[in-house]
Amino acid sequence: MLLGNAGLVLCVEYYNEDGVSIMWVTTGLDDPDKPTILLWLSNPKSKPRPRRAFVIARLDKQSHKIIVDLATHAILSDKVYNGHGYPLLTYEEQLGTMELPQTYKPFIESIERRGLNLSEVVCSTFTIGWFGELKSKRVLKVLCFYVDGPMNLYVRPVEGITLVVDIDEMKIVEYYDMFIVPVPKAEETEYKESKLESPFGPRLNGATLVNLDGLGFKIHGHTVRGFISEMFVPYMDPSEEWYYKSYFDSGEYGFGLFAVSLKHFADCPANAVFLDAYFSTNDGTPAKLSNAFFIFENHAGNIMWHHTESSIPRKVFTEVRPEVSLVVRMVATVGNYDYIIDWEFKPSGSIKLGVGISGVLEMKGVTYTHIDQIKKNVHGTLLLENTISVYHDHFLTYYLDLDVDGKANSFVKNNLEAIKKQAELVAVNPNKKTNVGNNVGYRLIPGSVAHPLMSYNDYLQIRGAFTNNHVWVTPYNKSEKWAGGLYVDQSHGDDTLAIWTLRNRKIENKDMVLWYTIGFHHVPSQEDFPVMPTFGVGFELRPTSFFDSNPVLKTRPPYIVHWPNCTN
Amino acid sequence: MLLGNAGLVLCVEYYNEDGVSIMWVTTGLDDPDKPTILLWLSNPKSKPRPRRAFVIARLDKQSHKIIVDLATHAILSDKVYNGHGYPLLTYEEQLGTMELPQTYKPFIESIERRGLNLSEVVCSTFTIGWFGELKSKRVLKVLCFYVDGPMNLYVRPVEGITLVVDIDEMKIVEYYDMFIVPVPKAEETEYKESKLESPFGPRLNGATLVNLDGLGFKIHGHTVRGFISEMFVPYMDPSEEWYYKSYFDSGEYGFGLFAVSLKHFADCPANAVFLDAYFSTNDGTPAKLSNAFFIFENHAGNIMWHHTESSIPRKVFTEVRPEVSLVVRMVATVGNYDYIIDWEFKPSGSIKLGVGISGVLEMKGVTYTHIDQIKKNVHGTLLLENTISVYHDHFLTYYLDLDVDGKANSFVKNNLEAIKKQAELVAVNPNKKTNVGNNVGYRLIPGSVAHPLMSYNDYLQIRGAFTNNHVWVTPYNKSEKWAGGLYVDQSHGDDTLAIWTLRNRKIENKDMVLWYTIGFHHVPSQEDFPVMPTFGVGFELRPTSFFDSNPVLKTRPPYIVHWPNCTN
Q1: Model ipTM value
Q2: One Pfam annotation, family name (chains A, B) (predicted)?
Q3: What is the architecture of the domain spanning B23-81?
């Protein structure tokens, strides 16, 4: 679950005519049609046919979209994509690109001119976006950082140098060395525990959960599914070095591909159970990521429901049930930011979708050491001498293929109207009623909403137009999965959710998809540096006359587990 | 902490000239002036003088506001209040009022006419509000319920009967029996565990926290402070029996006075520590409420910060710190609703203020048994046969006397502006700077905001005008504490936050108060019945360049406590 452009493992050999193996960019599941899936769900013995994989591959500077039959290993279709944009970047491509400057003479000279040690320079890749150019190549910009000190890539940018790399050719095609500003000293920015020096902060108290009943859930296979359709991070600095920085973390990089192995007792409580994940690499072979997901029962001390009856004289009583919810978590680190993705399933039927944003800021080196020196708009916060963090937004767009008690659903805007009007949004099944006749439904409870700050005509926002609204509803369409399109790198915004909805298709009483965007304007503060305390955002899907009455009324409370006598 | 109109205990004998003891309505702390408090905080040995109590008492149908010196037992001032509105209702007054109908002949006949058993009828009190009347008396409306069955007061309203009681005289002054509709059968609405019958839901798994290091916090006395200034619950049914229903839970009833004793292992996790509270009763004597607050370390499995450094070749590592936060909780049950009030203090300096809404709905008995029978607007949701729950809002207004690194603060609206404009709100101290010169500050991170639906000219909204904005900032003024005013029962809205701010006082570089209102439009769903799964809302105060850098960077992670060998 939650894996972005990733999924099952494909073992098909595939070469071009010259015997050159092709670069696998995306290997994923080609979902069967909905009726086939539903038939299979109703009768698990009827294995869905055909089982197919979906592959995007690069060959001879062209993007191929390939469908493979997994039973027969046959290629069912192979189409060259001629539209705008490129498929996501593979890890191997980025690693190759990062290493090019180390042997590039002009770059070596630039580093010497700055008095830096080449072996301590690490470069990183940045997508170039699209700003109206008529022609494009599959290129990346490369910026570099100094790691002679804290193991924190982004805090010590080597400003002024930009390389452009053609990744199909894997060679440097443009080089600029425009100005020199000091590399921030970045003192006290180490965050690796083994390198931290005293004085330390307090040690947090440890605790473990003792679950004498055993766990309250079981895992069979890998059947939980769902994903972040796109994640758009526009930065708002118009300078030459920063204007193009806007990341589509799913479409350009493959959000789920950057899932990281989780650490027991740190990323999760003591009672967590882990699942591994598998990815396909550049050449199509599978790679295993251990502990990619963890699943745990949340005994956080929340209250499922509570009532004290104090209005009936001489019969005062309190009834209360503690909540034990199920959390499924993954963490994806896409470059500098770490996204903690939680799906919390409550016994009441509520589903809370949370994102914790942590990690490190992307920095800009400047000459300023105090804000009193700053006379013009620097589009960011001065965090430490020579170090600015640029304002930006985070938009996470969820794809939620809702089936509320069946496929045919409607989306209802309940207008709450006395004098003023406000709306609440409910997905209902107009064909299914509760005992007293209400349509069964699930309500969307939005979190704090941030809207895009850019004009709809801004090139960045044209490509990120799926964030123009924080809620969209579309009829289910197998090909509409990635809000920013399938070929996002350098895309022109002509294959986004905002374009698909222009068709204004009927969504009443249909199989529909709810797209919800979590937004967060990030005005960095000094606390976010050198590593950012988790900032939590989210939303909730809550049953709304889906059940005839409180579904946890008769859920029995846990037996009380008293403080046991323990030896460690 | 968190206690509304309640506080310390006063033991002063006070009689009128006839020797009749007076009714104590409110006994609270008369805060010393801010300079006195600050002096005392900087030097705890300098005991603040004078230590004073603030009393509102009723005597001869008049409201007295009395200041008492606790050292000398002297009355420092005693003023009769001649403005609009009355002080809050005491528990004893409400209990007395509820019992009056049982011996009132017309009421007994009404109950017989409905074929009901008088001994199973329980009445409850309802404030009458203000709808433009020029004169008023201190009266309550009384509505009754049938408890021959589930112990759930509000599910079985005896519709059509309204009594009006003069509570100074403690007698019935008006009586209406207008129509008869069936008392809802309310089948399957029992929620008391001992009375629930099979089939049961699953039993949740138990767990206990084993904290081998002991607890990570200590409690000295009762020094945590803060409160909900007002809580406004307007219902939106214009019918004769419901139009007046709008509750000011603090000013009319005394929100904190309805704090309930918390249950270990149900209202809180195993590692909670409890504190008691004391209230003054009608005659001024103290009453103890056991386990009114609990304080616990939250080991919920949250992540304090996380970063995986994957951009430096051959040096990939993950650093992560689990979060252990401190939660202070109380639950207040004001009639049918139970409010779980959480203050969560994070090691990073963030303060999360959460409210969980649970309890039972207020019901309206109707003739309908299915929504197909409903042809006109019923202003509510049909939950079960003969049972409607009326639409309403919940507004909780927090009073936050912020002192960001000192008293003199400013409130900054950071306009985020590219083409479109959005604001973020930060309380800063313009006199204190970080190492690089940013003003130290705390940011307000609002939760989902619901605005009032009523016209500003509606009588209800005139009284609840402090909800017209969800954020207000005022200069600190000792007398401005309760957003709805001090005499809220039947108030005319002439002593609310919305009136105080008309003076448009300077708030820049001042000791200021932030008022934040959490709002929630409650369109009841069948799941909310017969008892409502907790609905969570809240907001966050997050340090914003208050610290020079991440304050939890060097907080050391807990020692790992492995699953111990335990005997129960």
Answers
A1: 0.87
A2: Cu_amine_oxid
A3: Roll (3.10)
